[in-house]
Amino acid sequence: MSDNSADSAYRSFLDIFRHCFDRCCPYYSVKNNLNRTKSPWLSIGVLKSIQRKNKFFKKFKINPTPSNKNAYSWYRNVLTDIIRMAKKMYYYDIIDSNKNNSTKLWKILNDILNKKSMVHSNKLFMCEDCLSNDRFHIANNFNNYFASAAHSLANNLPSVNVNPLSFIPQNAQASFFMFSTCVEELSAIVIKMKKGKSCGFDEINCDLLKQNFHVIVTPLIHIINLSFASGIFPSELKIAKSIPLFKSGDAQTLSNYRPISILPSISKIVERIE
After folding, report:
1. Which is higher by pLDDT, 38 or 42?
2. Which is it for the CA torsion 250, 253, 255, 260, positive or negative?
3. pLDDT in tens, 46-71
């Protein structure tokens, strides 16, 4: 990679990476597996027992004798106790294994309590005093609202006569120096990155970086060191994917949403370089 600009170097890297990824991992339409269980505590043995219970029930419906009823009722009650115990042990194990991870622990507790996600599938939003279902129009209005929120808050703050520069220590230097990074430093950063995190607009998540780090480490070092030397951060690494999350109130009102911004995974690597 011979680009002399951090912007052009990253653009070349991203184009090549996407081309290779799309070629090796093309998208396919996959039908949903309707037989897939939504209850992970149900083992294969329990699922077979459920099928056996259904056979008892079918036999009872065809021939509703007292013996068939008793056989079905007894098997159903025993199976219910087994399923309850399996569910209890499943949640006990995952809570115990995630007791030091507050994020996953709260997700598990919300799942147990059947709390609904704050993600709304609302398709109509109030945009410029009228309801709209046009995605492009809605996205632009969300962008304008989120972009102007900070200015609106700043305008509502009381004015003060304190110079902001007075909070900066007098011995602060006007500049700083960044040392070039290396394979060892990037490797240590990538290893510590958490798996399963959402990807930014570039669609490169942490898992993909970890799996292909040995392939992309050389161009990444070139881009990062070029950025440090030129003092220019690649523009595309500054782009955040903003997702509106519903807070409360009317789901059609833009002000009832708050944004979360997801930066590119490579941008997070650069932020951690010391």
Report:
1. 42
2. positive
3. 999 999 999 999 998 898 899 989 99
Closest by Cα among 252, 244, 259 to 130:
252
What are the distances in angstroms from CA 133 to CA 63, 191, 274? 55, 43, 46
Closest CA to 254 of 117, 130, 116: 130
* Cα 256 to the center of its chain, rounded Å: 21
